[in-house]
């Protein structure tokens, strides 16, 4: 990376930090480009060099958060996948506490950003982000149940949208319920039925 590129990304990072600072104090719809520029110490033309709209900045901030979380989870993904492939069937969940607890903690610690993201999910294409995030959790379980490849996109869509709905409801309530409680609710919703047939998925 040359000096010009380094400066470009450093400026983007400053605007992202400014955005998160302002988001901690007020709702997304009340944050202006002028405020972002003032807090980041850049001019308005610099903002437009990086983003077309505030939604673009929001999308990048959420993307960066999710990338950071994914990077931390993928360090343990091999051991996690092995556990899912080898555990008894009655312990086989589509989403386990090993995965949910750190993720829900991450959301709670950044709840204003994630609440804003869920409110703008369609604009931000959040389904694609969650699809990638949960794929390494779903895949070994669907493998164990012998689910056909052509069925998997439908099953993934069903569970991911359900998870997003529960998380969105939790965020609306300012994450008032405990992480343990929300984990239990999600597990109750997504536990695989005890059936040997693929159609039971």
What's the arrangement of secondary structure elements?
Blueprint: H1 3-23, H2 33-40, H3 44-50, H4 54-74, H5 77-86, H6 97-109, H7 111-119, H8 121-124, H9 126-144, H10 152-172, H11 179-190
Proportion of residues in extended strands: under 5%
Separation of the first and last Cα atoms: 47 Å
Arithmetic mean pLDDT: 79
> What structural class results from the helix and strand content?
mainly alpha
How many beta-strand runs?
Answer: 0
Poorly predicted regions: 192-201
Percent of residues in helices comes to over 70%
| Spatial shape | elongated
Count of helix runs: 11
Order of helices and strands: HHHHHHHHHHH
Q: How many whole angstroms does the radius of gyration measure?
A: 19 Å
Account of the 3D structure:
The C terminus is likely disordered. The radius of gyration is 19 Å and the shape is elongated. The protein is mainly α and 201 residues long. It contains eleven helices and no strands. Helix 1 crosses helix 2 and helix 5 packs across helix 9.
């Amino acid at each position: 990376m040359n000096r010009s590129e380094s400066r470009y990304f450093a400026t983007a990072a400053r605007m992202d930090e400014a955005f998160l600072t302002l988001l901690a104090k007020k709702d997304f719809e009340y944050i202006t480009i002028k405020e972002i520029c003032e807090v980041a110490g850049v001019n308005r033309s610099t903002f437009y060099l990086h983003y077309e709209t505030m939604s673009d900045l929001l999308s990048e901030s959420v993307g960066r958060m999710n990338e950071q979380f994914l990077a931390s989870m993928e360090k343990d993904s091999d051991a996690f996948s092995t556990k899912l492939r080898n555990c008894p069937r009655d312990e086989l969940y589509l989403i386990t506490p090993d995965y949910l607890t750190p993720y829900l903690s991450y959301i709670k610690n950044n709840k204003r950003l994630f609440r804003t993201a869920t409110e703008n999910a369609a604009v931000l294409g959040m389904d694609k982000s969650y699809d990638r995030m949960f794929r390494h959790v779903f895949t070994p379980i669907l493998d164990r149940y012998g689910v056909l490849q052509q069925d998997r996109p439908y099953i993934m869509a069903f569970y991911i949208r359900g998870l997003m709905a529960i998380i969105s409801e939790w965020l609306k309530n300012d994450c008032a319920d405990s992480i343990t409680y929300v984990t239990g609710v999600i597990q109750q919703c997504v536990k695989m039925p005890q059936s040997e047939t693929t159609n039971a998925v």
